[in-house]
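Quick check before the chapter quiz. The format below is the same one you will see on the exam, so make sure you can read both the input and the output lines.
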Amino acid sequence: MRDHFYQLIDNLAGELDGDLQLHATLSGEESDFVRFNHARVRQAGHVSQHGLQLALVTGRKHASGDCELSGTLDADLMAARSLLAELRDLLYNCPDDPYLNYNEQPCSSEDSRNEPLPPLGQVIETISQATADLDLVGIYAAGDLVRGYANSLGQKNWLARSIFNLDWSCHTPANQAVKSHYAGSRWHTATLQQHIDSQRQALAILDRPAKQLAPGRYRAYLAPSALAELLELLSHDGFSLRELRTCQSSLLKLEQGNRRLSPAVSMQDNRGAAYEPLFSDEGFMLPASVPLIDNGEFADALVDARSAREYSAPVNAATEVPGSLEMAPGDLADSDILTALDTGLYINHLWYANYSDSNNCRMTGMTRYACYWVENGQIRAPLAVMRFDDSLYRLLGEQLEAITRERQFMHSADSYDERSLASMHLPGILCSEFRLTL
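Here is the expected output.
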């Protein structure tokens, strides 16, 4: 598909006249999807899609549109020429865009990491055999993902990844559930078995009577998957230059120096160590990593092409939401978590997270899968569902006691329009206080 894409754009670029510039992006996948219910295959299918977006630019004017590619050059060239003709008709009636910003200094790149994934039948057999006695519900998605950029100035950029993603939960007869997630570019059956063994232990705990807590403040350990729910919400506006300059960022006080986090907290958007491309849809080359929080203090904001034009800042992101968020590890070993927690909450998952006070980075939501009450370093009972309301300034600030040494890599299971390349690489955190309200 790479050569097909490049040939297509070269043909279109040769048909331009005057000062017209053409900028093109491609996003595609060849993915297998399998839906499991009661640990059996209930639905299986394959998705092959490659979407082309063209942007025609002259001066401060631009017009853009998209079409699907078939993989046949003649048919795709006809569709792309038709789209280009429509954009020509639109272009000169478009108003000037003061923040239009495309790269005009060509810099080509290629990053293809196509690790061989196991055959689909082998994966299905492995999952089915390992969970035959469990009530497993989930989705397995795997295959090749590609992203491309090319323009009429001669720049060409390509990214290819082979990734699998298994997102599932196991349920008890009482409708309790333990959720798990296994994703990556190299499949290891032993790793999957470790996840399943851990789920079996959790399911046994969920059979115990649930403990109903009174609202209050409790010591708490937040597993990486629970922390991910909070940081995903934070990422929507926290690190955006545009949101900071318009005073709408939930981290505005941190950026202005009026609040700070624990010196143990450092975060970065580490695209170079994850899956996302190091080029933007406007053709700008992006740094492999952008420091976001450094030793508890705000470091850099994420700046996309339009914000770069508006605020005279260098482009360092495709969008102003981190797609490869990574938090630095600490010193707490996983084997010591329960001992360090002593008595309090062991929170595996949160959901329905939203801001209760965005100016103070305070969030509310609910506990979810496999959350426990711990006494004297021993898990005693599953928790009845509770609502929390607390600020990240506290949880990652004065109330933060420890960060785990081990981290969990979590690839996004989002596949609404297409499979996502976004991911998080996070530790767990131990907090001296976590506020439960209901």
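If your answer matched, good. The mean pLDDT is 96.
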